[in-house]
Amino acid sequence: MKKVFIKTFGCAQNVADSERIKAYYWEKGFVEVDNWREADEVVINTCIVRESAENRAYGLINQIQNLKLKTQNKRIVVTGCAVGAYGKKDIKGVNEWVKIDKFLVWEPIRQNKKAALISISTGCNNMCSYCIVPKARGKEISKPMDEVLSEVDKAILNGFNEIVLIGQNVNSYGSDFGNESMVHMGKKRIKSMFPQLLENVAKRKLNKISFVSSNPWDFSDELIDVIAKYKNIDRLLHLPFQSGNDEILKKMNRSYTKKEYLDLVTKIRSQISDVRFSTDIIIGFPGETDEMFADTVDVCKKVGFEIAYINKYSPRISTVSAKIYENDIPMKIKKERWVILDNLVNKKII
User: Which of 11, 194, 260, 337 is most buried, with most CB under 10 Å away?
Assistant: First the structure.
């Protein structure tokens, strides 16, 4: 019996995709192993959102290639965001570059036996200047609601009592279905169907429903009302703000200001008293001065995040920021700022 090792880098979306990759290989008669050295075929599901994740994927390829020079019996398959963004690359030792779409038609074999990951959309339309996701994943495409709810019901029948709804921007779900508009943060947006989907899921017999990742400019009053109404919706909300400085936010093409973000947090707290927040932050974005970084520190102090995923800026090929801004913040300063925020938010050292 052939053996496959599947290595997943990156976000919850990649983890969910790997559950379908596993089903594909299961159907082909493979068994999954935990050590790539024991495998006949190694599948690497890549992430390229951050340079470090991309480098780890290529490092693993090099490790396996060094062994192949001695044994010549391992097949390497690369899929995920690297293939979506770059296509086939000339990397020695890789036997096949496969777009993730090949695997998504398979029913997932779920890895987490407690919470079922349910993908509700793929791709992203937001075009943040630093982000390669639109290139890697394409335009945002929402799954039909009946398909999502059917997958939720199937997970419940299989014994799951927790659901995680995932997408690059879950709370813009369904904006590609129609053209009804709304105004949020002073800007006109196509109305999302995510509040309706979330309510339909929350009505089911589930202990907890979570969702990642969401953006402030799609966090509507209707969505806040739904979360407040249903106690089985997780009170830990992931709400990335990336930077607390308005000039940096504008350069990032993030459609809000520091004040608008803090006002949104205040509004959510006024309706959901037990809410907690986690977030994403980018430090060392081109042009970020000490004073600009201080704005980010100020947001962290005002919100009191439960956890922050802090990333040092690295330019990604083909993104707007890589093309027009110099990566001018020394790594030494990025590391210092990272420690400051990690101590403040994650370690609670003030």
Answer: 194
Which residue from 88, 67, 91, 79 is spatially nearest to 7, judged by alpha carbons? 79
Euclidean distance between CA atoms 310 and 52, whole angstroms: 13
SS (H, E, C) 89-122: CCCCCCCEECCHHHCCCCCCCCCCCCEEEEECEE
Backbone angles phi, psi at 282, to 5 degrees: -110, 125
Query: How far apart are the C-alpha atoms of 177 and 194, rounded to whole Å?
Result: 12
The pLDDT tens digits for 310-324 are: 999 999 988 999 999
**Domain covering 3-102, topology:** Rossmann fold (3.40.50)
Q: Where are the alpha helices (DSSP H) in 230-307?
A: 246-252, 258-271, 290-303
Helices 290-303/331-341 angle, 10° precision: 20
* pLDDT number for residue 350: 67
Helix (H, G, I), strand (E, B) or coil at 203: coil
Q: Judge residue 21's burial from the number of C-beta atoms within 10 Å of its C-beta, 0-12 exposed, 13-18 middle, 19 or more buried.
A: buried
Asked if 312 and 336 touch (Cβ cutoff 8 Å), the reply is: no
> For 27-46, how does the pLDDT look when each residue is reduced to its tens digit (9 = 90+)?
999 999 999 999 999 999 99
Fold classification of 115-346 (topology level): pyruvate-formate lyase- activating enzyme (3.80.30)
Number of H helices, E strands in the chain: 12, 15
